[in-house]
TrEMBL record:
The keyword Metal-binding applies. Keywords: Acetylation, Cytoplasm, Endoplasmic reticulum, Hydrolase, Immunity, Inflammatory response, Innate immunity, Metal-binding, Nucleus, Peroxisome, Phosphoprotein, Transferase, Zinc. It comes from Atrichornis clamosus. GO terms for cellular component: endoplasmic reticulum; nucleus; peroxisome. It catalyses: S-methyl-5'-thioadenosine + phosphate = 5-(methylsulfanyl)-alpha-D-ribose 1-phosphate + adenine; inosine + phosphate = alpha-D-ribose 1-phosphate + hypoxanthine; guanosine + phosphate = alpha-D-ribose 1-phosphate + guanine; adenosine + phosphate = alpha-D-ribose 1-phosphate + adenine. PANTHER family: PURINE NUCLEOSIDE PHOSPHORYLASE LACC1, UNCHARACTERIZED PROTEIN YFIH. The lineage of its organism: Eukaryota, Metazoa, Chordata, Craniata, Vertebrata. This is Purine nucleoside phosphorylase LACC1. The gene is Lacc1.
Length: 438
């Protein structure tokens, strides 16, 4: 069942107002007639021309909107300067109501163009079907979505213009939830390395569990790649790195490591380099973003260490890659564990907890329960020390001066961090990042 209807009259010229009113009236009449049980939300997208008052621009549509009592409370006119702004505004309304099945009624000439906008501003969470604005006539079309179609047929220059329009619009949006904040470790020398761990503030992601500086897009979440890219651009500006030379691990919850410049694995949870000006990053939303720095050989790395990766030794695998590829001495490597779920909150089934108990019984609390509490940070530290990393070269929540602590529990601090454990499947992601300064 269609949950929302988007009527696009954005490109129809104002001198055809009477025609637009007629088309819109007929379209709304069909929607109301076909929605006797469940009235969908209806959004009418129109153009606010430069210099015109918003009310005046919407005024010519009012005669067509009167009289639709069933739709009255669920009907909204979205009047903006660009299609990108209008569609993004509609997306916000859909997300507020958790709607995902949308019928788009529009002129045939706009269909291919609209599909490009939708491909950029939405993810696979949403389902779209399209209908010709002039051919709204029967009720059946409101029931079952049709496939969106294969590919896009617009010329590449038109697609580039759409991308540019979207980017300019997103860049104009204000930051949410305060200023962009970066946590830095005093262990990593800032004269050689640029590094940090992000928090959730200062971006443009508006969905509560993703707000605001979400730095990962997925087909299963509502934040599209273009929004994540804009958040990354703002982070890069604040931190001082080049977002075009940015490499994030391809998470597999295992222990493979990518050596930058060599053949890239299909997936990997660790990455290392000795190239200057290249930023490496590892995500985290409970899993540990781990940063590695060797100020002697001037090499660095990043790893994503969840409970599976921790047991598989992804952190030492990253250290070993730095040793074998760049001649690093394990005793020179500095390791910092970023914000991650703490032993105060994190539970695993008993069978998985046994593996942590084997590393050290202190990694498990309430071991005899069905779901013991697990300390993946302690397990990571122990495995690193067993591999030769000096205890004083590891920073985590066990440091003496807690004013220097950056390994906060993500689940305990909803104002600062995202947490899969706390927020569920539509969760946001922060990152740890590091690069060698030019």
């Amino acid at each position: 069942m269609v949950e929302a209807v988007l009527i696009d009259v954005f490109s129809l010229p104002a001198n055809l107002q009477n025609n637009i009113q007629g088309l819109l009236h007929n379209t709304l009449e069909t929607i109301e007639k076909c929605s006797s049980i469940h009235a969908p939300c209806v959004y009418v997208m129109c153009c606010q021309r430069q210099g015109s008052e918003r009310k005046g621009e919407q005024g010519f549509l009012l005669p067509a909107l009167r009289g639709f009592q069933r739709l009255k409370r669920r009907l909204e006119v979205v009047c903006t300067l660009t299609t990108a702004a209008a569609l993004y505004t509609v997306k916000q309304r859909l997300d507020e109501k958790d709607l995902s099945i949308i019928k788009v009624i529009l002129p045939t000439s706009r269909k291919d163009l609209m599909k490009v906008y939708i491909d950029h501003l939405f993810t696979a969470v949403y389902q779209f079907e399209f209908e010709d604005l002039q051919m709204v006539s029967d009720c059946e079309n409101l029931q079952v979505p049709e496939p969106q179609g294969e590919g896009q047929t617009l010329p590449s220059q038109d697609v580039a213009l759409i991308r540019s329009e979207i980017q300019m619009y997103l860049e104009s949006l204000p930051s949410l939830k305060g200023d962009l904040t970066i946590l830095r470790s005093s262990l990593i020398p800032d004269d050689i390395f640029l590094h940090g761990f992000t928090t959730r503030t200062g971006g443009i992601s508006y969905i509560p569990t993703l707000s605001s500086c979400n730095l990962f897009s997925s087909s299963k979440r509502r934040d599209p790649q273009v929004v994540v890219k804009e958040n990354l651009r703002r982070l890069a500006n604040a931190a001082g790195f080049n977002p075009e030379a940015f490499h994030r691990v391809k998470v597999d919850h295992a222990n493979a490591v990518c050596v930058l410049g060599k053949t890239e694995p299909g997936s990997y949870d660790g990455i290392v380099t000795n190239q200057k000006g290249v930023t490496l990053a590892a995500p985290g939303a409970d899993c540990i973003p781990v940063l590695f720095a060797d100020p002697v050989r001037k090499a660095c790395g990043a790893a994503h260490s969840g409970w599976k990766g921790t047991l598989l030794g992804v952190s030492m695998a990253t250290v070993n890659a730095m040793v074998s590829e760049y001649g690093c001495n394990v005793k020179d490597i500095l390791v910092v564990l970023g914000p991650s779920v703490g032993p105060c909150c994190y539970k695993l089934p008993h069978e998985s907890a046994k593996e942590f108990h084997r590393i050290d019984p202190k990694c498990v609390r309430l071991f005899d329960s069905a779901s013991p509490y697990i300390d993946i940070r302690r397990a990571t530290r122990i495995l690193l020390e067993r591999g030769g990393i000096l205890p004083e070269n590891i920073q985590d929540d066990s440091i003496t001066d807690q004013n220097q602590n950056i390994t906060f529990c993500t689940s305990c601090h909803p104002d600062k961090f995202y947490s899969h454990f706390r927020d569920g499947t539509n969760f946001g992601t922060q990152i740890g990042f590091i690069s060698i300064k030019d």
